[in-house]
Write a structure and sequence with these properties.
Strand order of the largest sheet of chain A: 1-2-3-7-6
CATH class of the largest domain in chain B: Alpha Beta
Keywords (chain B): Thiamine pyrophosphate
Strand content of chain A: 5-15%
Radius of gyration of chain A: 17 Å
InterPro entries (chain B): PDH/Transketolase (IPR051157), THDP-binding (IPR029061), Transketo_C/PFOR_II (IPR009014), Transketolase-like_Pyr-bd (IPR005475), Transketolase_C (IPR033248)
Mean pLDDT of chain A: 98
Largest interface: A-B, 32 and 31 residues
Number of helices of chain A: 10
Family (chain B): Belongs to the transketolase family.
Structural class of chain B: alpha/beta
CATH superfamily of the largest domain in chain B: Thiamin diphosphate (ThDP)-binding fold, Pyr/PP domains
Shape of chain A: globular
Protein name (chain B): Transketolase
Distance between the termini of chain B: 25 Å
Shape of chain B: globular
CATH architecture of the largest domain in chain B: 3-Layer(aba) Sandwich
Number of helices of chain B: 12
Low-confidence stretches of chain A: none
Number of strands of chain B: 14
Bound molecules: thiamine diphosphate
Oligomer: heterodimer
Organism (chain B): Pedobacter alluvionis
Chain lengths: 281, 318
């Protein structure tokens, strides 16, 4: 391990502070699942991903990450800043005019760390598969990681991709699902239930693992374990249970904070629960 | 210049929500479908009163269009609701084959169109949807200008038989049209009669055209302002009649100048009455994050831009 679990938790705490401050700063954006995925992003970028911060689009010899549920951009931007891709002061520009930190991730403004636009849901898994195929053709044995929302899986393109990857033995691919059970209009179980996702992906030919996405030890171990499963003919699906809003008590467990910004009072209440560890931007 | 005032500001999407509710009360065949954006589309009142006539399809827009097309076969009048980008580009072939080519009575209702969607940025800000939809044979394309007109348009399309694309937006803007107006599909609305220039505006740009008209009056320019809420079928007659009088035209839309209202007007004029024209529209670009006002200003969609375009086009008159 490059860091202790405590160190990683401290990083995640700072990322959570950044998320609520960024969303508050522009009074828009998506705090809920950003907070829920802060532990995953920390584990990925600070422990698991083999990556360089002097960014190149191709990322030859590096592991690549694709965010399909682009609305959780705050957690990604904060992670990239703390990992060294750009200065954390730029987080203050999130969603503001002329910023590289667009509402949803984009290559158009050339933010280091981003390799494709996302925001219109359901497209990221296909892109990740394409990047994995290119790596294979290039003889590059690095890993491709992707993150998808659970509600997002209602988009049919995911299932086209889900069918393609095992059939074509795309086996350096580790896709994680942010299994928080929430989407905009309510709990996923009420909007359009996903039911037994594990059985569905297994039926398509994926190797499915389950992790607790809000337990740092578990998510680090889970992602390392997922890496050991690659190269064996099957893509890996990490069904990662999380809490929407994790770390901020009043945001937890409800779809209401999917895409709502906190007011001044709510911001203060959130920050009181999230120790500043690396210094605010 | 005729005086327009307003006492409140509202979003056009709320006009859609209110119109859908009214249409639902009037006709029990009106049904609604949504892809996980009920609150954004203001469908709550309809859902509350007609829960059995509402279908939540989840985040699955292609499926939604197909289901809507199928429901017309049982005599239903489906109104689909999601953001404009996911209502058009996302599902173009589903609309093309199952709705337009099959001539099904589906009302594709699209919120958060254009730059004024704001902070979400370019992935969500479609500026190409009017073009995409108007190219489909048989598709009616409507972009109303305020809350009242959107409500009236929503009720009117329920009574019209055939595929319709209804485009509206997110920001609150002045409510300045008649609350009891009768909405006639394909019929232009004369906002202000004038003699020096014809300003043709649609959607959120109509209020900006009125603001521009006031500024132009101060400069001694008497602008005729026409609201084209129905981009297809275009009210050729109203446009030709006005342009014959004024001899030049400025078109205004929150859309790419490639493929929008302006091009429809140019096509008409170039065949019937070649006339100098200027375009107030985005110039072959994607949008970005920012507040709606900042973006309208940065991308040249403010009243001042209309004034400048008018001055330029008047200079081009023979
Ligand atoms: C194609 C498309 N349709 C609709 C939307 C609007 N939208 C943004 S986030 C979201 C819900 C996503 O649910 P989920 O993947 O579970 O993410 P979470 O709620 O956990 O953040 C929707 C419907 C979109 N961005 N793209």
């Amino acid at each position: 391990m490059k860091h202790t679990i405590k160190e990683l938790e401290d990083i995640a705490s700072q990322i959570r502070r950044d998320i609520v401050r960024m969303v508050h700063g522009c009074q828009s954006g998506h705090p809920g699942a950003s907070l829920g995925c802060a532990d995953f992003f920390t584990a990925l970028y600070f422990e698991v991903l083999n990556h360089k911060t002097d960014f190149t689009m191709e990322g030859a010899g590096e592991d690549l990450f694709f965010l399909s549920n682009g609305h959780i951009s705050p957690v990604w931007y904060s992670t990239l800043a703390h990992a060294g891709y750009f200065d954390k002061s730029e987080l203050a520009t999130f969603r503001k005019l002329d910023s590289r930190l667009q509402g949803h991730p984009t290559t158009h403004e050339h933010l280091p760390g981003i390799r494709i636009a996302s925001g219109s849901l359901g497209q990221g898994l296909s892109v990740a598969i394409g990047a994995a195929l290119a790596k294979k053709l290039n003889g590059d044995k690095s890993h491709i990681f992707a993150l998808l929302g659970d509600g997002e899986l209602q988009e049919g393109q995911n299932w086209e991709a889900a069918m393609f990857a095992p059939f074509n033995k795309v086996d350096h691919l580790i896709a994680s699902v942010d299994y928080n059970g929430q989407q905009i209009d309510g709990p996923t179980s009420k909007v359009l239930a996903l039911d037994d996702l594990q059985a569905k992906f297994e039926a398509f030919g994926w190797h499915v693992i389950n992790t607790d996405g809000n337990d740092m030890q578990a998510i680090v171990e889970g992602l390392h374990y997922a890496k050991t499963l690659t190269g064996k003919g099957k893509p890996i699906l990490n069904l990662m249970s999380t809490q929407m809003g994790a770390g901020v008590d009043y945001m937890m467990g409800t779809h209401k904070w999917h895409g709502t910004a906190p007011n001044d009072e709510q911001l203060a209440a959130a920050l009181a629960q999230l120790p500043e560890t690396l210094g605010d931007y | 210049m005729k005086k327009y005032t307003y006492t409140e500001k509202k979003d056009t999407r709320s006009g859609f929500g209110a119109g859908l509710h009214e249409a639902g009360k009037k006709n029990e065949n009106v049904v609604a479908l949504c892809a996980d954006l009920v609150g954004s589309l203001k469908m709550d009142a309809f859902i509350k009163d007609f829960p059995e006539r509402f279908t939540q399809v989840g985040i699955a827009e292609a499926n939604m269009i197909g289901i809507a097309a199928g429901m017309t076969i049982g005599g239903k009048i489906p109104f689909t609701g999601t953001f404009a980008n996911f209502s058009t580009g996302r599902v173009y072939d589903q609309i093309r084959q199952s709705v337009a080519y099959s001539n099904k009575n589906v009302k594709i209702c699209a919120s958060h169109a254009g730059l004024t969607l704001g902070e979400d940025g370019a992935t969500h800000q479609i500026l190409e949807d009017i073009g995409l939809m108007k190219m489909l044979p048989g598709m009616v394309v409507i972009n109303p200008c305020d809350y009242n007109q959107t409500k009236a348009a929503t009720m009117a399309i329920a009574e019209y038989e055939g595929p319709v694309y209804l485009r509206f937006g997110r920001p609150v803007i002045p409510v300045f049209t008649d609350p009891d107006q009768k909405f006639e599909i394909g019929k232009a609305w004369m906002v202000n009669e004038g003699t020096d220039v014809t300003i043709i505006a649609t959607g959120h740009m109509v209020w900006k055209a009125i603001e521009a008209g006031e500024k132009l009056a101060e400069l001694g320019i008497d602008a005729e302002i026409i609201n084209i809420h129905t981009i297809k079928p275009l009210d050729d007659e109203a446009i030709l009649k006005s342009v014959k009088k004024t001899g030049c035209v400025v078109t205004c839309e929150e859309h790419n100048k490639f493929g929008g209202l302006g091009e429809s007007v140019a096509r008409l004029l170039t065949t019937e009455l070649p006339t100098p024209q200027e375009f107030v529209a985005t110039n072959d670009t994607f949008g970005e994050s920012g507040t709606p006002d900042q973006l309208m200003s940065k991308y040249g969609l403010d009243a001042v831009n209309i004034v400048e375009a008018v001055q330029k086009v008047i200079g081009r008159k023979k």
